[in-house]
User: What shape does this take?
Amino acid sequence: MLAPETSTADAVVWLKAQARQQRPALMRIIAHSIGRFAVTAFGLWLIARLIANAVIERSSPEPAWLASLAGCFVLQWMLTGLIDRAKQRCNDQLLEYYQQQLTRALESRSLAIVRDRSIGEWQSFFTQRIPALPPYFADYVTQQQVAGMVPLLVLMLVAPVSWLAALLLAVAAPLIPLFMWLVGKGAAAAQQRNFIGLERLAGLFLDRLNARQLLHVHNAISHEQTTFNRAGKQLKTRTMEVLRLAFLSSAVLDFFATLGMALVAVFVGFSLLGEITFGSWGSGLTLAEGLFLLLLAPVFFSELKELGRNYHLRAQAIGAAAELHELLDFRGSLATQALPVQQHNLQIYGAQGENLLCASDLCLAPGDRVLLEGPSGSGKTTLLECMLGLRPQQTNLDWALPLSQVAWFSQQPTTLRGSVRVNITLGTRGEDEHLTALLARVELADWLAQLPHGLDTLLGDYPPLSGGQLQRLALARLLFFDRPIVVLDEPTAHLGEHQATRLSLLLQRCFKHKTVLWVGHHTEMSPFFNRHWRVDVDANRLICRECEEALCA
Assistant: This one.
């Protein structure tokens, strides 16, 4: 159910590159945070002076100082509001940005990548992985910068007062990010496993839901319940592992922060009592200086502790980016090239980088009618997708056929939730007579006549079509768009023998003056084809040759 640990190095590199791209938006949050620290430090200095004057000099606070302190509180409150608002705006913008990036990747390569993953995985990308990225940039990355600068600024304020207090803080500070890094490595790997587990469990659930009738008929429901219970327990265990690591990280941070503040407090207390005469630049600390150090020490650790509380966002982002960055950072679209096209020493690689298919010489000229044959799983569909520029990372092609000139018929035609008209025209304009004639040509006239609203009948999520009817509706769509290049991936696979023969002849008549790539078997062979491409699975090679009369007759 759950995948083993995978390397997160690529995800970390990608996240760092993304952080550099988003730096202008993040700098506003960082600037507000540094400004808030400056106001806080000045306010703490005012508090220390007011208390020292009240205790030692027994004087009433001056109105100007009280007004300044009140102004610090108001300004600090305003800066906190600006930081929260800037983070929320950054979150919203980044969420929209990455959703658009993923949508754009789907739009440009949907024919090639949608079927590579389950529905549960695609849902996870939009509902879990992408929403995990904006908090990482808006909260963790900005806090990482602030946590690096604020302690240095605190040391610059503390060192002129007491070099020993600055030394104690400087020694305690590195221990926090060190243990945070050690714990975070395990948290990132655990979070990645948790993402994968959720995706696979969702995919399993949807798969079993689609097969509920089959499971009921074969009395296999109880077995599947046992499987889900076991998978659910494993997922709970992994989730608790992530939470345990998060709590461990928080406990480590609190321990070292408390230890560092305790050391400073002990030094300040004994120095004020006169028990310690070293550690400061003068003869000892004054009450105002000691109070300032005590008030400033929590600020020194507060930003580091906040970074630790946000460290789980880093683990979530790494787990989310482990597979997401492969979808978002694909090689850009290939340059389109009009026919004729030619490629020497063609190489096509599988999903894992293995050599899937090669060809010494592949060429396609205007008017060519190619029959592409090969066993199932031999790479025929992948070859077509590479030629259309939908798998740029899996081929050495430096060109792609222009999609605006291509009409595509896939192995699994789909329908939209709209009307019959929309499913044929895809929202473009079409006359009723023309659409009715197209449906009649693909032998769907009787089906259309039975629909309550004809062409305006809504098909919905569960269209009233059999597999063969769905395929013929897709053929009507293909005929409607009338593109110069036609790609047919087994267009008659789900039809009866006689109907398949009739529709094959129809397609051959309609496309005799077009460029055609037809994936099929011996049943489609005819003098219609002038080229024959055959996949030799033993050699992983595509054999291209002119179509001989004996072969195509």
Strands lie at 341-349, 355-364, 369-373, 406-409, 485-489, 515-519, 531-536, 541-546. The chain has a mean pLDDT of 81. The longest strand covers residues 355-364. The radius of gyration is 34 Å.
